[in-house]
Specification:
With 170 residues, this protein is α+β, with helices and mostly antiparallel strands. Helix content is 32%, strand content 32%. The chain has a 7-stranded mixed β-sheet, with helices on one face. A hairpin with an 8-residue loop joins strand 6 and strand 7. It is globular. The mean pLDDT is 95.
C-alpha cells in the first residue's frame, strides 16, 4: 500500500466539491457542516479557480490530495493562512473503506510536513467537531497537541458547535 500526499491540481478541485455536495445530511452533521451553507458547485469552482490564480503567499486556501495506490482516498485543506506563521487544517477520508484503518494518520503526518514546508508555518491548527471521534484520534496519533474544547463556528460551512482544538508546531 503506497500512500502519497501532494498539492491538488486545479482539475482535482471537484473532488472536494463533490464530497460535500454528495454527502448525506447525517455525514455532514457529523462533520459539523450545515448543508444550507454549501456554496453552489459553480460558485465553489470559481472560488477554487481564483485561489489557484494567486501566488502561494497570497492564497486563502491550500488544497492537498491523499492517494493510495494512485487512487484518491481523501484530502486536506488549509485555510485562515497567515503565510510564514499559521494556518488551520481540515481532513477528510472520502473512501469509507479507508476509514478506521490508519491511513488518515499517515496522510495527516505527510500533510503537516507539506503545509509547514510550502506555507513556511510555525503553527498548524485543526478544530474538528468534538463529537466526531475519528479525526480527534487521528490528530492525536499524528502528533498534534490538544489545546482545548470550546464552542464556536469553525468555518463558513459550519454551524455553532463544540470543537476540539489541536496544534502542531515547528
Amino acid at each position: 500500500m503506497t500512500v502519497t500526499v501532494r498539492q491538488m491540481t486545479l482539475a482535482e478541485g471537484d473532488l472536494i466539491i463533490d464530497y460535500f455536495h454528495d454527502a448525506s445530511r447525517e455525514h455532514l452533521e457529523m462533520l459539523g457542516v450545515d448543508p444550507t451553507r454549501l456554496p453552489s458547485r459553480d460558485a465553489w469552482r470559481r472560488r477554487v479557480e481564483e485561489e489557484f490564480g494567486l501566488p502561494l503567499e497570497r492564497r486563502g486556501m491550500l488544497l492537498v490530495i491523499w492517494r493510495q495506490d494512485d487512487q484518491p482516498v481523501g484530502f486536506s485543506t488549509a485555510d485562515r493562512i497567515v503565510y510564514g506563521d499559521r494556518a488551520n487544517m481540515h481532513l477528510h477520508i472520502i473512501d469509507p473503506a479507508c476509514r478506521s484503518i490508519g491511513i488518515g494518520t499517515q496522510c495527516v503526518r505527510k500533510s503537516v510536513d507539506l503545509y509547514f514546508d510550502v506555507l513556511r508555518l510555525k503553527q498548524l491548527f485543526c478544530e474538528p467537531n468534538a463529537f466526531n471521534t475519528a479525526p480527534n484520534r487521528t490528530l492525536q496519533k499524528a502528533g498534534f497537541r490538544y489545546l482545548k474544547t470550546h464552542m464556536t463556528v469553525p468555518g463558513p460551512l459550519n454551524f455553532h458547535q463544540a470543537v476540539t482544538q489541536w496544534v502542531a508546531e515547528r
